[in-house]
Design brief:
single chain, Thrombin, subunit H, 159 residues
Length: 159
């Protein structure tokens, strides 16, 4: 599976790149680290819809360790609204300066919505990178079409 990353180069220029995953995170959508995300632990989560929802998961960076098996709610501010998703932590990897957290979504209704929200996050991150590289007058529509043609096919999908 391909993963899109937003990184800084030594010269200070931003770049958007794709790396190949090691297989451990197959089926996870990687949230771009340059895009804000917050989470909170759910102590009394009654979502039992997980059998239908486990078609995809979300993966994100965290400064704090999260114990596998706990339920959390992720909040992603996007275009004036906050998108929320519930999931169960199923993967935690120590990456020296942060943890990589993987959750399976626990609500079936969130699966397709999460995929769309994450695509928008990736497209907007890609747009910022292009504007930094090519200037502020880059066409949003052209950049969105370019991202879709280059990266959308590698994005995990439900079912």
């Amino acid at each position: 599976m391909a993963q899109a990353n937003h990184t800084g180069s030594p010269a200070g220029a931003c770049q958007y790149s794709v790396t190949i995953d090691d297989g451990l995170l197959s089926g996870f959508i990687h949230h771009p680290s340059a895009f804000p995300l917050s989470y909170k632990r759910l102590w009394f989560n009654k979502d039992n819809d997980s059998e239908n929802a486990q078609a995809i998961g979300l993966c994100f960076r965290s400064e704090k360790y999260l114990k596998p098996g706990i339920s959390i709610e992720i909040s992603i501010p996007l275009r004036g609204e906050v998108q929320k998703f519930r999931g169960k932590v199923v993967l935690v990897r120590n990456m020296d300066d942060h943890f990589e957290i993987g959750i399976w979504l626990t609500q079936a209704a969130d699966v397709h919505r999460a995929r769309i929200v994450e695509q928008i996050c990736h497209i907007e991150t890609y747009l910022r990178t292009k504007k930094h590289q090519e200037g502020p007058f880059v066409s949003n529509e052209r950049v969105a079409e370019e991202w879709v043609s280059k990266y959308a096919a590698a994005f995990p999908s439900a079912g």
